[in-house]
Amino acid sequence: MSLFRKKSINQLIQSSKKGKTLKKDLTAWDLTLLGIGAIIGTGIFVLTGTGALKAGPALTLSFIVAGLACAFAALCYAEFASLVPVSGSVYTYSYATLGEFVAWIIGWDLVLEYLLATSTVSVGWSGYFQSLLKGLFGFELPDALTAAPGAVPGKATFFNLPAFLIVLVITFLLARGITESKRANNIMVIIKILVVLLFIFVGVQYVKPANWTPYMPFGYQGVFSAAALVFFAYIGFDAVAAAAEETKNPQRDLPRGLLYSLGICTVLYVVVSGIMTGMVPFKLFAQDQSHPVSLALVQTGQNWVAGFVDLGAIMGMTTVMLVMLYGQTRIFFAMSRDGLLPKKFSDVHEKYRTPYGATWFLGLIAALIGALVPLDKLAELVNIGTLAAFTLVSFGVLVLRKTMPDVKRPFKVPAVPVVPILSIIFCVFLMTQLAAITWIAFVIWLTIGLVIYFGYSRKHSVLSQAE
């Protein structure tokens, strides 16, 4: 049994049409909002403070560097997504180009990305929600239910109740169907974009150019270090590709959704980080890194706008969790349909036409991780998983151009092999900027994946059964 047996593109498309199918209800507009829903959240409302402490006002450059890495990867995703309009994102593409073993590795890698991203954002959401509760009603939860064990020095915390509950609410919404999830996402995305535009309109009036000097206090190392951190801000646009099987016209709309959402968010990130570091000295963010955008507004006396920003942050993080968990369930669904995971995870609900069991299984795990694991332990692991996925999808484009040069491609990556190679270089470079402990944890996660593959997946694979 070959480790590198492949599913043809025809096989992948045909397998998506067998049995109970997912509901096709998404357009280019929905996919763009899905992408923005996934991208604008923790990155713009939380990580801008931590990034500013690493790069200073040059945080704008850090966002551009991270955005370039994503742009090159997005072009590669767009080619695959239009060619193989099937659930599973880069896992599915790898199955067609690099073989089953690599597909399993990348699928397992994506579990790390999406599951931990959902948990990470739930922790940030909890912080903003508790701040809003206190500000509006003067109500505070008992310390024991405000954070994970050991997350807050000097406080006896045991369980992050708001983080746990919000993931359960999102799981319920996703289990009910894509139409309901789409409507909720679209409304919240429009609200949070309006909040970001409000910050830009008000904040630009308080910019002091002196705060941008020196522009690069920590040199290029600071810029690159911050880029590796704020890369988390872009995670999620690739979840758009996971929606292929539920898109009305995937060949046309998937590339548009991927590229439009990434372009809009990059512009907003650069503008917001520039205004924020111009409003107050960047060192001020050391006081509180959990809500830097609100902090900048409070320092300039714009408390009423800060309240709206808190609301926008809650909306923003809610949509991020919604899209991340959605992407995770669809990848689990695809891996189960291929026999690499138990068949139970690819069962489609008779009424809602969603992978109901997989959705609740993953939702409960994400909720428990968010409730019990501190934030700083999660974010970098998500980054390394995503960068590895981007590297493989870029490599996959090169392989497919060589092995299947004549296949019809509704969308083609321009300037091949330059763009895929640049994507690989940017992603690998950002991976080298991550801490050693992150690499160790990543290797442990992959080792667990190898045990599952050789212990279960290899012999239960649909291709293995056919052999």
TrEMBL record:
The chain crosses the membrane at residues 26-47, 59-78, 158-175, 187-206, 218-237, 258-284, 304-327, 356-375, 381-401, 413-431, 437-456. GO terms for molecular function: amino acid transmembrane transporter activity. It is found in: Membrane. It is a multi-pass membrane protein. The keyword Membrane applies. Keywords: Membrane, Transmembrane, Transmembrane helix, Transport. Its main location: membrane. It comes from the Bacteria. InterPro entries: AA/rel_permease1 (IPR002293). One of its GO terms (cellular component) is membrane. PANTHER family: CATIONIC AMINO ACID TRANSPORTER 4, INNER MEMBRANE TRANSPORTER YGJI-RELATED. This is Putative amino acid permease YhdG. The gene is yhdG_2.
